[in-house]
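Sanity check record (used in CI):
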Amino acid sequence: MLQSLAGSSCVRLVERHRSAWCFAFLVLGYLLYLVFGAVVFSSVELPYEDLLRQELRKLKRRFLEEHECLSEQQLEQFLGRVLEASNYGVSVLSNASGNWNWDFTSALFFASTVLSTTGYGHTVPLSDGGKAFCIIYSVIGIPFTLLFLTAVVQRVTIHVTRRPILYFHVRWGFSKQVVAIVHAVLLGFVTVSCFFFIPAAVFSILEDDWNFLESFYFCFISLSTIGLGDYVPGEGYNQKFRELYKIGITCYLLLGLIAMLVVLETFCELHELKKFRKMFYVKKDKDEDHVHIIEHDQLSFSSIADQAAGPKEDRKQNEPFVGPQSSVHPDASAGN
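Expected output for Potassium channel subfamily K member:
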């Protein structure tokens, strides 16, 4: 009897604090994932770093042996200055002297990477005035970019996602949830093909030193806004039509980022993912449900961590991709 009472009380305790337990497991899982990534990267990359260090030591020692008039201190001072300039995107190599980092097209490419928070790091401001302007420009430009992307993605999602789903639901009678899942998978496949595989093939042709894997790696690192900067297109000394190429890359990155956000929003609106996300949210009090800080129909960056569970959203869970602001009647949408 006592055991059954203790078991039932434990069950009630777990159910009462279910969100807290789920959140604790989420934090633990994220930390373990970080550790897992560190272990894998360290085990894979550390041997290559050791080989590179040994190779550089041998080259340095051989160079000093062949040039006895040059001291090791003088060589290190020269190399230190060269590496410092390289960090600012200025190379001492003769085959790279023809490319300027701050002509208009390169500056336009730099501005796009700053506002999209990609930040390759291959080109950085040299002067104090440039650094100060970069801070002010980013403070204003990044929120402006978020607003711009949110507005664009909201309009694209209506025509690319919501209306097709309503059309198949109303005209053909398919379940909205099934249509939403199939549509999300197809949209993801088309986006990956158009903004990853095809551009990777193009980059592997236009860039002399890139293979397909490196080109695909650049596309993913760029459109996910990671921006490591180890691969940057259009930096070759013999690059033809470099200005036009840089403008094309800027347009590709902007369109690709919009496409990625549309796909992200489409998947985040799936009923199954909404239900899964709500496991980690703190339940709202009834009074908080009347305070609408963020509207349901907003998109892109805030859609992952938006709506905590509320009665208004619970009534709409079975109607994916139908926003509360939409004034279009389903019949009218189907007709479109």
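Confidence is low (pLDDT under 50) at residues 291-336. If this sentence no longer matches the regenerated tokens, the check is flagged for review.
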